[in-house]
Amino acid sequence: MKQTGQNIPLTFRNFGLLPEIVSVLENTLNVNTPSPIQAMSMKHLLSSKSALLGAQTGTGKTLAYTI
Asked: Is 25 left (phi over 0), alpha (psi -120 to 50) or beta?
């Protein structure tokens, strides 16, 4: 993710999730960085829009949808 010419590390915190959700992701699930499919779909999914996601098994589609 780039903003004003600077590289900003992409984490789940960048999506404006509730701190409790970020805490579970980082501390319980040990997930800090979204997969490419999660990064591409998260903003769309968080805006309560329907989505059709396609990626290989194990890439994190269900986690993105669940969040």
From this structure: alpha
Q: How far apart are CA 47 and CA 40, in angstroms?
A: 13
Rg (CA), the chain: 12
Q: Say which amino acid occupies 59.
A: T
Q: What is the pLDDT of residues 35-62, one digit of tens each?
A: 999 998 888 888 887 888 889 999 999 9
pTM given for the model: 0.74
**26 in helix, strand or coil?**
helix
Tell me the torsion sign for CA atoms 54, 2, 17, 43: negative
